[in-house]
Write a structure and sequence with these properties.
single chain; 233 residues; alpha+beta; seven-stranded mixed sheet; five-stranded antiparallel sheet; globular
Length: 233
């Protein structure tokens, strides 16, 4: 699973790295303890004047679909890749609303109960991208003419953890291989089980190159947010 992650670069640097053309230039992305329900960057593709254009948008981390009534339930920040096309909460978004969620790394806890040890999992010298899905949710409590009634939300796909990460946790995000990013965010086709399976296989290849180290338990509190959280201990 993935319940906390890090973005340690400003939005312009993320845009350059992933060849994004449109992004909110005034947005600040840097955060060392991103938790569900906060806004996170997502990379998606739209067709503008018959040309594909990559964009970064900020989305609430926790998918809200048409069947979601309000904010009272637990945030759906992870979606199992194995069932994302059949679960009512995710299926509509998973068919065509695919996105990439850039990260400098993510946190995972090893152990059970009160005896849990946090680890920071990351690439050696670059950012990684999680496979994600997104949805526009309409807040029925707000007037029809209020543009804020539409809320962009997202979720990260997860799968069984690959061999090198399973000793930390039995689930991991689905990582996007560099060559797969273009195809995943393209809006002009529908997602299939075959595509999901291929994505999971490629994700394991990406995971094989990841590194991890133990970090401070301070990451467990969302009140803490500094580069010290990713320091090796």
């Amino acid at each position: 699973m993935c319940g906390r992650f890090v973005v340690a670069r400003e939005i312009s640097a993320v845009a350059d790295l992933f060849e994004v053309e449109n992004f909110p230039v005034d947005a600040s992305l840097i955060s060392y303890n991103i938790a569900p329900t906060t806004k996170v960057p997502i990379i998606l593709e739209r067709e503008i004047e018959s040309l594909p254009v990559r964009e970064i948008h900020l989305a609430r981390w926790g998918l809200m679909s048409a069947i979601t009534k309000d904010f009272s339930g637990p945030p759906l920040f992870n979606a199992r890749a194995e069932t994302v096309l059949t679960k009512p909460s995710f299926a509509e978004a998973a068919i065509t609303k695919r996105c990439a969620i850039p990260a400098s790394g993510y946190f995972e806890w090893q152990g059970t109960g009160d005896d849990k040890t946090p680890f920071f999992i990351h690439a050696a010298d670059q950012m990684i991208c999680f496979a994600g899905i997104y949805s526009w949710w309409r807040d029925e409590t707000k007037p029809v003419n209020d543009p804020s009634r539409w809320i962009l939300t997202c979720s990260i796909l997860t799968q069984d953890a690959p061999e090198n990460l399973v000793k930390i946790h039995d689930r991991s995000p689905v990582f996007l291989h560099e060559d797969a990013l273009d195809a995943w965010i393209s809006p002009d086709y529908e997602t299939t089980d075959q595509l999901i399976s291929q994505l999971q296989a490629e994700s394991s290849e990406v995971a094989a190159g990841l590194q991890f180290h133990r970090v401070s338990s301070a990451v467990g509190s969302v009140k803490n947010n500094s580069a010290e959280l990713i320091a090796k201990i």
